[in-house]
Amino acid sequence: MKLSIRHTFPCTVEQFWESYWDEGLDAEFQRTSTMRRTLLSEVVEDGKRVRHQRFESSVELPAPVAAALGTKTLAYEQITAIDAADSSLSWRVLPPIYKDRIKAEGQMTVRPSTGGCERVVEGVVEVKIALFGGRIESLVVENLQRSEDLSAALRTRWLVARFGGG
pTM of the predicted model, to two decimals? Predict the structure, then answer.
């Protein structure tokens, strides 16, 4: 299933990336999120900042999905590579199970747009598990959309307070 999420922010591209690295804003994301994030490692490779993180949800999965996955909550690791020179970020999920049947990866770009900048998240979520694959894909994409919408609202409030809206 393809994923495409777009949000416009009242700031420059540089201000967007400044917000991306802000520890106070990150703490607020963590406080309001149902996903807990743990940084496992961070290195610079080929000019890109590469993060390896673990994500764990505090929300239980629907019973049939939990049965298919063998776990009550969603947990996974993710590799993220941020290319400041290109104003982009690529991400790839490392599933704890069914590694050969689950694929989730994509890219985020931030570009100037009218009134500020636009963040575009595009990717693919594929789950090849009989009977439940499509449902799991839909749940993941719905949760990502909801999470990105909430984070965009929070980031916009932070940007307006910090920079006055562009």
Answer: 0.84
